[in-house]
Amino acid sequence: MTMKEALQKAGESLTLVEHLKSCKRHEVQDTLSLNNARNMPSYKQNVAKRIRKVESFNIARQELIKEKRAHVKNLRKERDTINRINIQFAKFLRQSVIAPFNDVYADYLDHFIQEEKIKKAHNLSNYNDKVLKGLERVYLTKIESIKNAIGKDHSFEQLISPEDIEMLVQELYSLELYGAALKKANDIEISSENFAFLDKSNNGPMREKVGTMQSQKHYSSSSLF
Fold first, then answer.
1. For the segment 23-33, what is each residue's pLDDT rounded down to a tens digit?
2. DSSP single-letter state for residue 61
3. Based on the number of CB atoms within 10 Å of its own CB, is 112 exposed (0-12), middle (13-18) or buried (19 or more)?
4. If you count Cβ atoms within 10 Å of the first and of the last residue's Cβ in the chain, which end, N or C, has fewer?
5. What is the pLDDT of residue 104?
6. Which of 76, 156, 144 has its CA nearest to residue 106?
7. Is 223 exposed, middle or buried (0-12, 13-18, 19+ CB in 10 A)?
8. What is the pLDDT of residues 163-219, one digit of tens each?
């Protein structure tokens, strides 16, 4: 390169430098805005993806809350049903115990009274009147207690039949949440009772029953005084 060409190149460089010095500089915000504009499509995609993720989470949470509320509602409904049926069971057991059992017991005492009257008629001179009077006193007391129990028990206004109990049992079995578990528990209980009954049958239940009845008869006569 000749001297002339070198000087020409140097002059052009100086001219370019002077031109650059005279140019207005870009503001920093303009530069950042330009960078953001370049990244905006990717940024918008990420934001949209995050929004969809949050929306999906909220929908799933609302569905779960709705499901749990329905489950709690069913639990309360079944609890109320079980409580209502338990009350009916209690009434049935109470009427079964107070009315029929007490009637049988009254007949049982009446039978002993009649036996004692026969003994007295056959052996009037040697008969101990305390036995008969004691039986009659217990009999009258028992009859009075039966009347009082029935009079105070409002469940006797509408008696519950065994057929009603069977319908209530089936209603329990039909419960969505606990019906199957209740039926299984009852089946196990019935199987256990049947097994116990068979075991007693194999060990002479009649002999045991006769001995128990004799002991009860002796106790009933001797414990009056």
1. 666 554 555 55
2. H
3. buried
4. N
5. 56
6. 144
7. exposed
8. 898 999 999 899 888 888 888 888 887 877 766 666 665 555 444 444 444 444 443
* Token reading at 16: 């370019």
User: Alpha-carbon dihedral of residues 144, 146, 149, 150, nearest 10 degrees?
Assistant: -110
What angle (nearest 5°) sits at the alpha carbon of residue 40, between those of residues 38 and 44? 160
Residue with tokens 């009254």: 106
The model carries a pTM of 0.43
Where do we find the tokens 């006769």?
Answer: 210
Query: What are the structure tokens assigned to 180, written together?
Result: 């199957």
Which stretches of the chain are DSSP H helices?
A: 3-22, 28-96, 102-122, 129-152, 162-173, 179-202, 205-222
Contact yes or no for 112/135 (Cβ under 8 A): yes
Q: Are 85 and 168 in contact (CB under 8 A)?
A: yes
Q: Which of 164, 186, 178 is nearest to 87 (CA)?
A: 164
Tokens of 101: 């059992």
